[in-house]
Design goal:
With 214 residues, the chain is α/β, with parallel strands linked by helices. The chain has 6 helices and 9 strands; from the N terminus they run ααββαβαβαββαβββ. Helix content is 29%, strand content 29%. Strands 5-4-3-6-7-8-9 form a 7-stranded mixed sheet. A two-stranded antiparallel sheet has the order 1-2. The chain is globular and about 50 Å long.
């Protein structure tokens, strides 16, 4: 276990702090969550490297720096309710849970949904809610959400997600008219006004669904 703790401390220092991540809550969560348990067994030795990694079924676990940067943009505080679209490995959801957020996460691929649910059970992560569905519809019964994070890239911002964002609220989502190439967009809602700010170029797998790619 200590070996992984050392890998995590090194990851936080070399990949996150040196690239400008400063939110103590984010840094502590990334020091705590056992990322090596969220990758396929054969890739465990590479879990703390500076790359996204394949998790099967054509999907990936995001690069640590991307997870940290998106999480920091959310300016999340413990106790807030957050919706994630694209559970995947469950790593991003675990980071948010570890920060004390009330996490709702949706995945559309049954195998990934089941795998993440089993892992959360094993890790005794309580109160993290998962759903198998097309997340571009959001999770209406559970909303509104103080924060929304989308970890797959679609051609536009799904309208139901904007509707389910609380006021005030922040959503971080990769958007791009071309597949595998997006800009990270930070959407804010305040006093009824919705604004979007395009940030860094990123490369996420497809957001597939009614309000995503066909
Ligand atoms: N947050 C994940 C990243 C996974 S990659 C992690 O930490 O590992 C993106 C995931 O989004 C994939 O698992 C993909 O199946 C899922 N996805 C794509 N479109 C979706 C949709 N409409 N609803 C829910 N999940 C979706």
């Amino acid at each position: 276990m200590t070996a992984y703790r050392i890998s995590r401390d090194r990851m936080v220092r070399d990949q996150l702090i040196t690239r400008g991540i400063t939110d103590p809550l984010v840094l502590e969560a990334m020091r705590t969550v056992p990322r090596h348990l969220f990758v396929p067994e054969a890739l465990v030795p590479r879990a703390y490297e500076d790359y996204p990694l394949p998790i099967g079924l054509g999907q990936t676990i995001s690069q640590p720096h991307v997870v940290a940067a998106m999480t920091e943009l959310l300016q999340a505080k413990p106790g807030m309710r957050i919706l994630e679209i694209g559970t995947g490995s469950g790593y991003q959801a675990a980071v948010l849970h570890s920060m004390g957020l009330e996490v709702y996460s949706i995945e559309r691929i049954p195998e990934l949904y089941t795998r993440a649910a089993d892992l959360f059970l094993r890790l005794r992560y309580r109160g993290l809610r998962l759903k198998l569905a097309d997340g571009t519809h959001g999770w209406e019964e559970a909303g509104p959400f103080d924060r929304i994070i989308v970890t797959a890239g679609g051609p536009s911002i799904p309208k139901p997600l904007v509707a389910q964002l609380a006021d005030p609220g922040i959503m971080v989502i990769p958007v791009g008219e071309e597949r595998r190439g997006q800009r990270l967009v930070c959407v804010t809602k305040e006093e009824g006004k919705v604004q979007g700010r395009a940030l860094d170029a990123v490369s996420f797998v497809d957001l597939v669904g009614t309000h995503g790619w066909a």
